[in-house]
Structures are given as C-alpha cells and as structure tokens.
Design a protein that fits this description.
mainly alpha, rod-shaped
Amino acid sequence: MANTQNQYEEDMDLESYKTAHDLHKFFAAWRYKILAFLATFNGALFYAYVNQEASFHKIIITIVGIVASAVLYFIDKRNFEIMQICLNTARSIEQNRKVESGIYSAIEGRPRRKFSYSYRFILTCLLLMFVILWLILLYTNVFVKQSG
C-alpha cells in the first residue's frame, strides 16, 4: 500500500512539474508579445496624433495612449506574478524530490550580472516614456492652445 501511495505522489509531482513548466513557458512568451504590442500600439497612436488636425481628436488619442499603456503594464504585472508562481512551484517540486540538476533550482542560484537590465526595468522605462510623452502632448493640446 505504501508503494502505491509513493507512486501516486511521484506521478502527481511529475504532472504538476510538467504543468508548471508548460505554463511558465507560455507566460514567458507572452511577456515579449506585450512589450512589442505596447511599443507598436503607442507608435501607431503617435502617428495618428501627428496626422490629426482636430484638437478634440488629439485629446482622445492621448487619453487612449495613457490608458492603453497603463492597462498593458498591469496585464504584464499579473503575467509576471503567474510566472513566479509557476517558477516557485517547479522549484519546490525539485527540492522535495531532491533533484540536484533541476532547471528551476538553477535559476534561483545563478549569479546576477552587475549591469544587466531586466525585462521589468525596460518595460517600466518604456511605459514611463510613453505616459510622459502623452501627458506632454495632452498639456500642449489643451492648455497651450487655449492660452494662445
């Protein structure tokens, strides 16, 4: 009976490990899609802004740019949290099964480079750049045009 229980636990661990691995890969791939979409969408909005004559349309475009950038940032934040859950689950299974050459345990112990820029840092900088750009355009379109 104990042997059957051990086999069941090993099968469950293996299934959980595979699921965590597959989900981690899935959400990691989405991070780059979100980054690409953020840059492309804001670039398209900026192109529409530059080619727009009506002041009201420019205001709408800037508001859409700010909201879309914030929404994509929070989607990526949630995506990152789910990736961390998958990573921690796989690492936990490796440690419980005493797997010494597990890829998720190796991620935790790897040395960090001194000047490496993380994906999170790049995304945050892009988001801030876009939001500041949209706020400047909104300010110039609303307040500068009214006073001039």
